[in-house]
Structure formats: structure tokens, C-alpha cells
Fold these 2 entries.
Entry 1:
Amino acid sequence: MKKIRFIIIGSGWRSLFYVRITRALPEMFELCAMYCRTEEKAEKIAGEQGIYTTTSVEECLSFGADFAVVAVNKADIFKVSRQWLERGLAVLCETPVGLNMDDLREAYKLRQSGAKLMCAEQYIYFPYFSSVIKLAERGLLGEPYSVGISAVHDYHAASIIRRILNKHTESFKVYGKTYKFSVTETADRYNKFFDGRQAVKDRVRLTFEYEDGKAAFYDFCSVQYRSDIRSNYICIQGPQGEIFNNSVSYIDENFIPRKKTLVFEGNNDKICFGDEILYKNPFGTRLNDDERAIAEVMVKTAEYVRGGTDGGNLECALTDAYYSIKMKEALETGKEISGSPKLLFTEG
């Protein structure tokens, strides 16, 4: 594949992931420019990151980039994505595509009218998650009927839950509660803390139920992303076995119980299940898991823009965002909420 050329819209924390990816993989990616709203911000980012920045929309369009990465605040993601789509540029937007039903429906209509919109939902491409998804999808456990996940939030969790349980636009019910607990903070995005500071954080627990009896159990607190004293977990169960974190228990072809542990090599460069390689780093560099997964989405976006298919990316991202809306509704009302993602893709 020829070099992937793109621009970045936005200059916040998330946008810098794309800068680091380009710096690490210059033979694959070319960052034409980062668009900033003010000259002051453009000069600051250019000085700090050593990249070309601009405040000119016309200049951004003149580069003939494959796509624009929209990495602005959540409230503006859809609005800004629509602006650049209307200017004739393909867009890879950060998550979520939108925060309300109107935006999600409009995003789908834009696609139907020919706009090329992709979403950077990357967690299903993380080395670990892609590995356990592969094991679940191939039937090692039988057909998975439950998943418990305490690792990622909202739409990210929805993407993993739906992939494991093979759910698309099927109806569901969701209910649960928010708990408030004190926790000692050890880190944020930028700093480590060693002063014993504590904060009260929300712990959200939700249950998803489907008409065929499948279920998912969501458990998350925001400190999990960076805390040194909080752990993540995932538990996938089917009639023939269970995956719990790195441990895989299953019944073999002779109905004999077996147990194996996933083996990780390097910086998650390879993940093996026995002699089988479930994941192998496709980029040959020391990107972290997040950056590696985003790079994979960027490659898929370029393939789509250049004449391929999006592999259902947008429909999945819209459904994940819809799940997030229903999760919020369940927590705010304290009631069991019914959801039907197919409403996103129908008139009315």
C-alpha cells in the first residue's frame, strides 16, 4: 500500500496519538498538517511537536489527503466531522460518532448519500482483546452466551460485548446502578501521584439481557485506565468453556477438560494459545497497544477510501454509541431500559 496521507483536525491529547504513530511509522503514514482553530495554538503545537500546523481550511483541502482525522472534544465530534465531509473529504472520527439519536441517524444518512465516514473504535484491535475475540468466535467455548467486562467504558465496552456475543441490531434490555467509592489516586494522563490523595469515583455496574438468553455484565470505574491499584478483567463463558483474563478452560474433542494460559511475547508483539499465534504485531515497532490498534484502523480507513469496503465499521460504531446512550438512560432513571439499535437504520 502506498503511503497513507492524512490531516488532523484538533490539537488535544487524543490527536497526539496520531502524531506519535506517524513519527514511529514514517514509511506508512504522512501527516500533511494539523488544523488548529487559533494561530496561538498552531504555533504552540508546531513548536512542541515539530509538525506542520495551519488555521486554513483551504490549505488543508489542498493537500489531497486520503482522509481527515477528527479528534476534537466529544460534544463536537459529529458537528466537525460533518463539516469536513461536506467539504468533500473522507473522515476518520474519534469516538463516539455522536452523543444523541439525531446525530447518529444523520451520520448514517450521510453515509447513505455517499460520504465516507469511519470511526476510530480501536479496542477490538488491541492485541489482547483481538486474541480472546478470535478464540470466542472460532467456537472453542461453544457459542458464547455471557461476557463480564471490567476494562473499558461505555461504547468501547459495547463494541467488545457485541463482538463476543455476536450481537448487531438485536434488541436488548439494560439496567443497573452507579455506586460511589473513595479510591487513592496513583496517576492521571500526565502525572504519577505519591501523596495519598483520594477522590470519590463512580463505579458503574450494568446488566444487558437479550431475547435469546445471552447476557453481558459491565463493571467500570474511570480510574481503571491508569490506576496502579485497580485491575481489569474479562470473563467469557460458553457451554464448552470459559476465558478468564489469560486463562482458557475448555472441553477438547474427546470431552476432556483442558486448561491453557495465553502466552505473551515482547511488548504484546505476539500472543499465543499453545502452538497457535492469535496475534502478531503487524507494524514491527514499539508502539503501545492503543497506538497499534489506532494504526490498524487508519490502514483500514485508507483501504476503504481507496475503493474497498468499511467492513461494517460505521454501523458498528453507531450501534456502540447507541448502547452508550441507553446505558446513560438506565443509570439516570434507575429503570430497566429497552433498546433497539435497528432504529438507527430505519426511517422515523
Entry 2:
Amino acid sequence: MAEYVLFTESTTDLSVELVKELGIEVLPMRFTLDGTEYNNYPDNRELSAHDFYDKLRAGGMSTTSQINQAAFEEAFTPVLEAGKDILYLSFSSGLSGTFQSARLAAEELAEKYPQRTVRVLDTLQASMGEGLAVYYAATMKNEGKSLEEVADWFEANKMRVCAWFTVDDLMFLKRGGRLGGGAAVVGTLLGIKPILHVDDEGHLIAMEKVRGRRASLDGLVKHFADSDVPASEQVVFVSHGDCLEDCEYVARRCKELGAKRVCISTIGPVIGAHSGPGTVALFFLASKR
């Protein structure tokens, strides 16, 4: 079996500890905040997540950019030259052009290294939903499964990864074009908190509206409780936009329901630029999204 390296990008929002545990390579995506460009590494070495969200709270504006084809080729080439293959799990093609850039790079490199394999797969997920898909793939790799075995399992099971979000500030959804201006203002005045879902095409869509923060957090937990996969078999990921206490509440509720493992991490600047401070997201498995 050929040796291979599992790559993904920083939109997985995996903690440094999980990245080390899984033994994966994480490519940084870029974001711009108030005119300054940063790389988003898992360790937030260029700008901490807390400082990023504080700047957003103060009215700062952030935009993001995808990883381009040249960056992928630069990252992949040394691995191929070392005689190893590559499995790349990408940020949702429904939210970014990163998947297409990776695929173009793979096609280019296939001509230069015909004896090597570069497999690029679309998670159709974001944040730790993408991270949960990577977690399962990396676990299989570390158990000795081949690139082909992991890729085949992934394609057969990626639509089982469920992602549910709630946000604290509707204006960030308005900025991202996911909520009308009038609805954002009225919703804010009424204390409306939407519960959002990543659909089968990898898009983020609003599914429910509840009144009050605690109700929205409980709504996330209810979706986990309703999963047809037993909680005792579940690895659950919970991510947050600089609101650790709320994240820990959701994590604690999932543990009380019997989750096998619960991992917490911060939503990084690339995702957080669109969801805003106060976002809480929950990820788990079910028979379908």
C-alpha cells in the first residue's frame, strides 16, 4: 500500500491538539480584516480568534479568499516528490471555490507525477462539520486503511455529517446575503435567533426561528437527540465564535445524552467573518443530513 498524506484547510476549525492527534496537514486560508491580510493557521499565530471577534464587535469588516491553484501545487509537490500520494478533503464547494482550485491543481500534478495519486474530495461541509469528516477519514488512515478505502468510505458517508448553527447577531447573516435587512432588524428587536443547517449541496440555510438565546442552544441539542445514530456511538464536535460558555453548555448537554466523545474548538476567522461573534455550531452523524 502506497504511503499517503491527508490534507485539508483551516476552515475545518480543528484545534491544534486535534490536528496533532490526527496527523494531518492543514493549509491556511486567508482573510482580510480592516485592510490587513492574515493567514488563518490552526494555532491562530497571526491573529488570535478572540482579538478577531473583538474587532468585529467594534465594527471591523472582514473578507475571505480561497486557496488558489498555485498554492495547492506548492504544498502538494514536495509530498509527491517524496514518493507519497495525497488525499485532500475540501471546504464545501457550495460555499467556496477552494475545491475547484484543488481539483485543477490535482489535474496539473497528475501530468507531472503520473505514478502518484492526488485525490480531491468535497466534504460539502464547513467549520467542524468539515472537521468531523476529516476526523473520521484520518482515524481510518491511522488504523491502516488505504487511500482508496478511506476515499470510498468518505464518499459513501459524507452526507451523514450533520451541521446545525445558531448565531447571536443577525446582522452578520445580513452582510453575507443570507438574511434580508428588514428581517435582520425586526428579528434583532424581537430577540429572534435562527437555527441554520448545512444542506445536501453544502449551502448554509435557515431552518427554524426561536426566541431567545437559550432556546436556540437547546434547539441545536434537540437535533442531536433526534439523530438515529445512538449517542453512545457519536463523536460530537461543537464550535463557537468567542462564546465559550454557551459552547460548553451545548457540549455538556450532549455528554448528558451519552455522546462517546465531545470536542470543542473556536470558529476561526474565515468562517467567523460570515457568521459573526456569538455563533455556536454542533456537528454529529445521522443516516442523512
